Each structure stands twice: as structure tokens, then as C-alpha cells.
Amino acid sequence: MDIQREKIPTPLWRKYWYVPVVILLIFSTYKFKSFMGNASFIVKQNELVTAVVEQGRFQVNVRATGVLKPVYIRWVSAQVSGRVEQAFVKAGAHVDKGQILMQLSNPELHRELEKARWEFEAKKAENYAAYIALESQLLDLENSVVEADYSYQSSKLKLDAETQLIEQKNATVSALDYQRSQLSVKQQNQYWLSQQQKVEKMKASLLASKTAQQARLGLVENNYQRIKDQVDALAIRATTDGVVQQVSLALGEQVQVGGSVALIADQRSLFAELQVQENKVSDIALGQTVVVDTRSNKIFGEVIRIDPAVNAGMVQIDVQLSSELPNDARPDLTVDGLIEVSNIADALYVKRPVFAPRYSDAGLYKLTNNKEFAQKQSVQLGQSSVNQIQILSGLIVGDEIIISDTSSWQEHQEVMIN
């Protein structure tokens, strides 16, 4: 027998239980949306660093480190070999040109000098004796010329007298004697002329002999002078005014020809050698102003040379110092340099954000007026200094941007600041 069961109706709350849940979700979503706005990421305020866009004079500087170097520097070297007998100066001493730095000893060189001196004196005596002998021969020849002249004149007088008698048809002079007189005059004249030629030849010979003797004497004298100069060079002297930077030899040391003795620099004339990172050299040009900091003073200068080569990622920049050198300026002093690349009178700029390279388009987060949100903004960047960068477009004066690291949420267009 079937028993008819009474059908119990389902409560509405069970039938439509999901409706309150949906309503709650919609309400929560609405509240969250109203709270978050269009932000898709939340960042903590205490983790952010911000900066405000400013307008005004914008200086682009490149910072570098380096040392001061002397413009005029000389290595003093030994001209002769020897052993250091005495040292007169040490590093740091101020010396004048010609001042003795060290005294070397070389006994062999002194013996060679004495030998060369005696050879020179002997050669001078030999030359003098040769000159006297040649001049004596010349004097004899000149006397012969005088005697020949006398004989010629005597024969000519006799011939002239006989000619007058012959013209007067005086029989005192025979024709034979007259012809003999004519022949004698010709002979005496020829002899006189030949003696004159001998004198001229002797004078030329004497001059040539003197020249040859003088040349041979010059060789001996040059050798003597060379050794004398070498002995004088045992006293090593400063080649310029300045301060001794380094002394390479100690007492008792042996030095060879050309060996380094001392380094002398002029401390009154210095320049700066700065090392600049290779990626910053493109902005540097000749003539740019540089401020060199010695830690206690500042010196002004300008760029005079840019090394074309890169060494270990650095490029050397030479700076000519134009202002007066302070007392603490000295060679090899470590200094900092600030090179002024450009100076823009009216520009937009801001503190340099992280990962914001110069001359690039970057996505920077600009804070809203209530500073509760930050929206990603496309910004065109220009030149950069040590800690600032120029804004070409995308921001205006007074805009506040996030300059700390935003790489972990760069894909979000808007973030909420909590």
C-alpha cells in the first residue's frame, strides 16, 4: 500500500544563496576599484625616492680623478761611467741649473787625460819647430831673390853702358863682349824670375804645411778636450732649475754612460692628468673649463689634450692650469676634476632617476596631485650631469617623479602609493 508523502517547499535562502555572495563580490570589487582607481600595483611610500622638476641654469659636468704633473721635467743622466763618490742632493731639494748633484770617480779617465795633455803639448812643440824650419827656408829663398835682383840690375847697367858706346861707334866695346853682356842680362833676368816663382811656391807650400800641421794638432787637441770634458762630466750637474723628484743612485754605486741619475721637475709649472670614463669622453672638447680640486684649494684650467686611446676603460685628459698654483700643489698630487661640458641658461631638469640614460626616451612615474598614485609618463631626456638630467619633453616645472628603482613594476601603467 503506497503512502503519499507530503512535499515540503525549498526555502528561498537555499534556492538563491549565491545572490548575496555575488552582490558582496560586486560591492567589494566596486570598493576596491574606487580605492585603487586605475592602479594595477601597490608600492610602499617609504621605499620610494622622489624629486621635483625644476627650471633654471643647468650645468653639465663630468667628474674625473687624476694627478698633477710637471710641464717641464728632465732626467739627468751620466755622461761618463764612474762610481758615486759623493752625493750633494736628495729628493725634494731645490736646485739651480748647473748645480752639482753628484761627484763620480774614475781614475782611468784621469790617467787618459794626463796622457792626452802631454801628447797635445808635444804636438804643439813639433808644429812650432816645423813652422820655424819652413819659415827659415822661405827666408833663404827671399834672400836669393834679392841677390838675383841685384845681379840682374848690375848686368843691365853694364849692358846699357855698352849700348851707348856701341851707338856712339866707340871701339872700346867689342861686338863679342856686347853680345855676352846681352846674354848675361837675359840669364840674370830669368834667374831672378825663377827665384821669385820659388818664393811663391814656397809660400804656398808653407801655407799647406801649416794647414796640415794644424789639422793634425786639432785632432790631438780634440782628443784632449774630449777627455777633459769627460773628466769635467764626473761632476754631474742639474740641467734645469727645479725640484729633485727622484735620485736613482746611492754612494758607492757604479753608473754607466747614459745611466739615470736624478729626475728634476719644475714645480712652478704644473698641469693635471685626469682619467675620464670612456662613455663620457664624447661630451668633452678642447677649451672646456675645468675646476681642479686639491682637497684644500681649487684651481681653474681648461682642456688642452684628449688622449685618442682608451686604457682600461679610461681616457686621459690633460688640463692646463690657468690660475695661480696654491702652496699644496706639487707633482703626483691626487686631485679631482670637474669638467664643464655645457651651461644651459634656461632648462628643465631633475635629479637623475635610476636607469635613465641621457639622450633617451624613458618611462618615468609622475605622482598625482594627492600623491596617492603614480602614472607612467613617456619622457624625453637630454644631457646629464653628475646627479641631474635635462628634461626635453614629457614633464613640466613642479612635476614630482619617482627617481628610485622602478624596474620591478615597469609593466604597470599606474601604481598606487600606500
TrEMBL record:
One of the record's GO cellular component terms: cell envelope
InterPro entries xref list: BSH_CzcB-like, UPF0194_transport
Tree of life domain: Bacteria
Main subcellular localisation: other
Keywords: Coiled coil, Membrane, Transmembrane, Transmembrane helix
Domain CzcB-like barrel-sandwich hybrid stretches: 76-266
Locations listed in the record: Cell envelope
Keyword match Coiled coil: yes
Ranges that cross the membrane: 16-32
Pfam families to which the protein is assigned, alphabetical: BSH_CzcB
The protein's name in its UniProt record: HlyD family efflux transporter periplasmic adaptor subunit
Organism: Colwellia hornerae
